[in-house]
# Entry
Amino acid sequence: MTPDDIVIADTRAWLERAVIGLNLCPFAKSVHVKGQVFYAVSRATTVQALLDDLIAELKELAAMDDKVRDTTLLIAPDCLQDFLDFNDFLFDADRALVDMELDGVLQIASLHPRYQFAGTLENDITNFTNRSPYPTLHLLREDSIDRAVAAFPNPESIFEVNMQTMERLGLDGWKALKVERTEPDDPPMATSPHDTPKT
# Structure
């Protein structure tokens, strides 16, 4: 089992090198620099346990001041390694959001090591825009999304620009970023003293 601090370090490295480094999400840098991204590690090994952890994190995010915690990355290193199973879980996740009456307040985005857009081949480089080191649920505030989109000149162009970025980068360029999950025998990555695993 990969320790929580390494799971968080891997995810932070991916956020800094890929998401922010390649500017895949123009809105990510601001909340990252301000320390408003919360990393929660779920040790769930079943769908129900992960759903329980998701509900707890949704409640916590909704109750927090956005200046303290704007967004949460719920990382599940021990669950839903198969992308199709993970994709199926998103229906349960969205239903929980509605049941909690948080639909329109919070939003759940999905990231996975084997993420695959419909109509693409498994190793199509464009899939890597959503490939995180571990299965991850990104919990976002709708208000924050609206503000970010309003401040960005052409938000509808982000997807197309990302596809072009990935095509230029290629598989070798992605591998050079070294944003894969740390295997048990790999040396641990440096962690920030401010990274506190969720217990």
User: Anything to note?
Assistant: The longest helix spans residues 158-177. Helices lie at 4-20, 28-33, 47-63, 83-99, 142-151, 158-177. The two ends are 15 Å apart (CA to CA). The first strand starts at residue 37 and ends at 41.
